[in-house]
Design goal:
By secondary structure, the chain is α/β, with parallel strands linked by helices. Helix content is about 40%, strand content about 25%. It has an 8-stranded mixed beta barrel, surrounded by 4 helices. The protein has a 6-stranded antiparallel beta sheet with strand order 3-2-1-6-5-4, sandwiched between helices. A 5-stranded mixed beta sheet has the order 8-9-7-12-13, sandwiched between helices. The longest helix has 22 residues. The radius of gyration is 34 Å and the shape is elongated. The mean pLDDT is about 90.
């Protein structure tokens, strides 16, 4: 039976007789409750059931149809069977089952349904009752800090947003910087004590009407009605001050915090989005150097989201065997006569729309995420295969391959290279590893040990992008390499800049004096090439004047024409 009007509970209905007890029970229960009059098939539902699922009323006659859309389609038979079993059960005993129910946050969660039949004095069934408990109901308070957790933060923020006609304010997420190092150094017991102390310190500096919540990991959350950016900065300055010292028996330990803030309604007006935006702003604050607060900005967020999307695409590509990656090869020539010596293998990647992504966009992501390790294996394998093939046309063909410090730190990198050389039977003397400057080198002894091992195999070592960032003359003192590659930035205006002229010229002289060769990158014009050849005495040249990076099949035609 189903009507458009709210069903009527008759005077003689058992539901009418138990309404007082039902109301008392539901007022103190978090579970969803219902009772069914078996005579009329009318259901009495608890208030929270009606509210959370937007049911039309507390009294309904089509409960199965109302709840079924909220049950996961794979579990509807489980629910239907339980409802039939309670009526067909000859003995009065509970019926229980578990299924997935769509909650108000838009996600399915497992629940437990417990059904019990109620009979009259003649043992004839009159009613049956049901209790639905969430199996994933989270604990409300953090057991270390005593602070209320994320689920309560969401609920309280939701009430704040609903309590005013035009609510406005700020959501702040505070994250401790590298707190896990403190825990690992001093142990988890001290870590918990320190974390509890920090939570209390932050609570003490907040305004009395602002509550601090414990979010995931070493993060806290709070929201401030009517807050302006200036007030947020003042609050965070207080947080910074209270973070300065954590007392240990033997040491004073210093810890910093970063924070991200999103404003409502200007940035967003719902709980989930506001919190996510604040967490994104926190990540941006950390990327800027930590120990600071950042405000959510749409442009920065869109760029961050694009980077995350790109990173996911690359991860999928790697899982498929580096499917969208490919190598291009740029000629390297003898500076004296322009004779082809070999090529540098350059990594390229197709985006999902089929366009080639600029290397400066995706290579830093590969290195930061350490995806450069599996991709680096793929690069070396394919560059070696290609070099071996091209040496049929040009026996002394040289292949330069970029590697990063992350790859050197990988325990299996050297064995992989050694195995690759043996499998493809290539002369190691025709290979050069170029160390890209993606990280500051702190441990010269380690780096030189690694490169000494490659030297022992016969592989040459080059320092890429010399003259920029950290690669200065100090590298010549500390770095055991065969070739220095001078960056394009010093070549662009070399004929107009006496500084660039002298820097390149005397760097080459210095390198020659200690037995190193020099390759000049970014040469695009003939007069620049002639100057580098005649005045600077460069050894190798690389740049658009002698060839662009080319796909394997295009470069191979060049080799075939020369052979």
């Amino acid at each position: 039976m189903s009507t458009n009007q709210t069903p009527y509970i008759g005077e003689n209905s058992p539901l009418n007789r138990i309404t007082t007890y039902f109301n008392a029970l539901q007022s103190s229960a978090e579970e969803y409750l219902f009772v069914v009059d078996l005579d009329t098939n009318i259901f009495l539902l608890s208030d929270n059931f009606v509210k959370d699922f937007d049911f039309p009323a507390n009294v309904v006659d089509d409960f199965d149809n109302l709840i079924m859309p909220f049950i996961h389609h794979d579990d509807r038979e489980i629910f239907d069977k339980a409802m039939k079993d309670i009526l067909s059960e000859s003995k009065i005993k509970p019926i229980t089952c578990e299924f997935r129910l769509l909650h108000s946050n838009g996600e399915y969660g497992w629940v437990n349904l417990n059904l019990m039949l109620g009979s009259d004095e003649y043992n004839q069934p009159l009613i049956f009752s049901g209790i639905i408990r969430r199996l994933d109901t989270p604990v409300k308070a953090d057991n270390v800090t005593g602070l209320l957790k994320r689920n309560v933060f969401y609920a309280d923020l939701q009430r704040e947003l609903e309590s005013h006609l035009n609510p406005h304010g700020a959501v702040m997420v505070i994250g401790l910087d590298n707190f896990n190092v403190i825990t690992e150094t001093y142990g988890h017991k001290f870590g918990d004590t320190a974390f509890r102390q920090i939570a209390q310190n932050i609570t003490n500096v907040l305004p009395p009407d602002i509550r601090l919540y414990k979010l995931d990991g070493y993060m806290f959350g709070l929201f401030m009605p009517d807050a302006m950016p200036e007030e947020i900065e003042i609050i965070f300055a207080s947080v910074q001050l209270c973070m300065r010292e954590i007392r240990n028996v033997e040491d004073t330990i210093y810890c910093t915090a970063s924070a991200g803030t999103a404003f409502y309604p200007s940035d967003a007006n719902d709980v989930i989005t506001l919190t996510r935006y604040a967490e994104v702003a926190l990540e941006i604050a950390r990327q800027k150097g930590r120990d600071q607060v950042a405000f959510f900005e749409r442009e920065t967020y869109d760029r961050w989201r694009y980077d995350i999307g790109m990173q996911n695409l690359m991860q999928n590509s790697i899982a498929r065997g580096c499917e969208e990656f490919f190598l291009c090869y740029q000629p390297q020539v003898d500076a004296k006569d322009g004779r082809l010596l070999g090529a540098e293998a350059l990594l390229r990647w197709y985006d999902q729309d089929g366009s080639v992504v600029a290397p400066m966009q995706f290579i830093p992501m590969l290195e930061k995420s350490r995806m450069i390790i599996p991709v680096g294996h793929w690069i070396i394998e394919n560059a070696v295969i290609t070099a071996k093939k091209w040496q049929k046309y040009m026996p002394d063909f040289q292949m330069s391959i970029n590697i990063s410090l992350y790859q050197l730190e990988e325990r299996m990198f050297f064995p992989f290279v050694q195995d690759c050389l043996e499998r493809h039977q290539i002369d190691p003397g025709t290979l050069t590893f170029e160390l890209t400057e993606s990280q500051r080198v702190y441990d010269w002894e380690f780096v030189n040990q690694q490169f000494s091992a490659f030297h022992d195999l016969g592989i040459k070592i080059a320092m890429d992008d010399f003259g920029t960032g950290y690669s200065t003359l100090g590298f010549l003192k500390n770095f055991n390499c065969d070739i220095i590659k001078i960056d394009k930035v010093f070549v662009d205006d070399i004929l107009k800049s006496s500084f660039n002229k002298n820097l390149v010229k005397y760097t080459i002289m210095l390198c020659h004096s200690i037995g190193m060769e020099v390759c000049i990158e970014g040469v695009e014009e003939e007069d620049v090439y002639l100057y580098l050849r005649d005045e600077c005495k460069a050894d190798q040249i690389q740049g658009f004047y002698f060839g662009f990076p080319e796909r394997e099949e295009v470069f191979e035609r060049r080799l075939k024409n020369k052979s």
